[in-house]
């Protein structure tokens, strides 16, 4: 009943944003599942899908919708950047304030971690201040615009949907590193399933980043809480902190805190 009430409280725009995000992360959504999840009529969901297709965010098929094929795959990261962007910016600002001089910091390929990098203060952008390690091309591009960054870019297999590297070479390079902080994103977070993502190779990178860092901070907007992705990254107890926004469901937040994880709402 509570989940149904939350679904009914969503505006049409918020609902369409969630549907677009689900298509990006899962590749396909089913009409019957959307009707059940959002507790609205099939006609309303069909109208949502028509609008999203008109905007180029998905392609309608019999029984549901799929991600747009072809060259649009390379734009999926950009599309994810637009979803829940205000919350991601707030989370990014709070995370950036955690970074201290001389820290070695790992950043995964998530859109929220990119927001962290965008908001790192000027005094930490000097080459002697912090060391940054990432497999993310957008993060690398952001940092390379700084005056003299101290940046390590992990090589490996390039995954266009994530604009990031992964695979054996990436893992080999991570094995030789030790970090003070790791900032990781997730496609879903549940008590039972922990942090999850949609890609096996990306899950391997995130898993090792957590293991090679003294403190691991999960950064995820509230739309990810209560959802489960395809591949597990780590159980909730493996993270020292969760940074999320104030729309996070209170029951999930309390359950996460009961696992010994500090939860910061911004």
What would you note in describing this structure?
With 266 residues, the chain is of the alpha/beta class. It folds into 2 domains: 2-68, Winged helix-like DNA-binding domain superfamily/Winged helix DNA-binding domain (Arc Repressor Mutant, subunit A, Orthogonal Bundle), CATH 1.10.10; 80-265, Rossmann fold, CATH 3.40.50.1360. It is built from 11 helices and 15 strands. The chain has helices at 2-9, 12-26, 31-38, 42-54, 76-82, 85-96, 111-118, 137-144, 168-175, 200-211, 250-257, and strands at 28-30, 59-61, 64-66, 104-107, 131-134, 151-153, 157-159, 164-166, 179-184, 188-190, 194-197, 213-219, 231-234, 241-244, 262-265. A 7-stranded parallel sheet has the order 6-5-4-9-12-14-15, with helices on both faces. It has a 3-stranded antiparallel sheet with strand order 1-3-2. A 3-stranded antiparallel sheet has the order 10-11-13. 39% of the residues are buried.
CATH class of the largest domain: Alpha Beta
Mean pLDDT across all amino acids = 89
CATH architecture of the largest domain: 3-Layer(aba) Sandwich
Describe the strand arrangement of the main beta sheet, using strand numbers: 6-5-4-9-12-14-15
Shape: globular
